[in-house]
Each structure stands twice: as structure tokens, then as C-alpha cells.
Amino acid sequence: MSKKPSKSKTSPSLQLGRAVEWPDAPEKAKLDRVPNPQAGTDYLVRFTVPEFTSLCPVTGQPDFAHLMIDYAPGQWLLESKSLKLYIASFRNHGAFHEDCTVMIGKRIASEIRPKWLRIGGYWYPRGGIPIDVFWQTGRVPKGLWVPEQGVAPYRGRG
User: Fold this and answer.
1) What is the DSSP letter of 52?
2) Interatomic CA distance for residues 62 and 157, integer angstroms
3) What keywords would UniProt list here (predicted)?
């Protein structure tokens, strides 16, 4: 006898697998988490966001960044569709580079409580000056392999 494939075990409260409204502000965005089936194993998850946008809070001009989010999961994984919706909610949000980067890192850390998390915000130059912002929750777990973030530097950075 063959077994029928099991249906997805996602919670109806998750945004995954259904149409949802795009949030128009970060505070309106919901970050979903799902149980980590490898919770007893230390490993690294990386999300790369090469087209992040927000607005300058002073001029209203668009700001662009390449975000790298690395985390060592604990009991929870960050669900990627909810991350995409959260990231998109910054498109009309006015905040400085430092505030956006740290806000994202802190929000993810508070929602999924990873063993460790770091975020690198590599902001494209405005006025000829690129700004890079880094934040992490604490020390890297012993024995965890954490690759370099690998974002190419700008010519002239030194």
C-alpha cells in the first residue's frame, strides 16, 4: 500500500502559503517563526537582501543597501516569506542607515530568539560616502563556522 503525501503542517496563522497584504510600515509587519527540526545542532542560516530600500528621514530620498543576516537557530527558524514582507515594509519608511540595520537585527532576534545573530548593512554611497553598519547579539557559539559576509568593498574605501 502506498501512503498519501501528508499535507503541509503550517499553522493557519502563518503568512506562508496564502495571499497577504503588503505591510506599509515595519511596525505593521509580522515576522513568522517555525519550529527548528534541527534544534539540537549548531548551524548557520544566511539571508541575503541585495536590494533593500528605505527613505532618508531628512530629504525623503531613497537609500539602498545590501543586507546580510546570519543566525544560528535555536528552537525557531525565521520563515522567509514573512522576512520578505518585513523587508519590503521599509520602502516608505524614513530612518537613518544605522537605525534601519539595528532595528531589523533586534526585531528578528526578539521574534526567533536565535543562539546568535548578526546583521551587516552595506549602504550604497550618498554624497560619496558608503556607510556600513554591523550589529550582533553576542559571541559566536563555539565551533560554529561563520563565513565572511562577502560583500565587495567600494573602490577607495582603503
Assistant:
1) E
2) 22
3) Cytoplasm, NADP, Oxidoreductase, Queuosine biosynthesis
Q: What's the number of CA atoms in the CB half-sphere (13 Å) around residue 43? A: 11
- The reply, when asked if residue 78 is annotated as ligand binding, is yes
Dihedral of CA atoms 45, 134, 101, 60 in degrees, nearest 10, equals -140
Average pLDDT on 133-154 reads 92
Residues 132 and 121 sit within 8 Å (Cβ to Cβ): yes
Catalytic positions are: 56, 63
Strand partners, 116: 72
Which residue type does 27 have? E
Cα–Cα distances in angstroms (integers) from residue 18 to residues 13, 27, 77, 85, 117, in the given order = 10, 21, 19, 13, 28
CB contact at 8 A, 11 and 82:
no
> Known binder of ligand: residue 21?
no
Query: 3-class DSSP state for residue 83?
Result: helix
> Helix 97-112 to helix 80-88 angle, to the nearest 10 degrees?
150
Model pLDDT for residues 82-102, shown as the tens digit of each residue = 999 999 999 999 999 999 999
pTM of the model: 0.88
Band of pLDDT at residue 9, cut at 50, 70 and 90:
low
Q: Is the pLDDT of residue 22 over 70?
A: yes
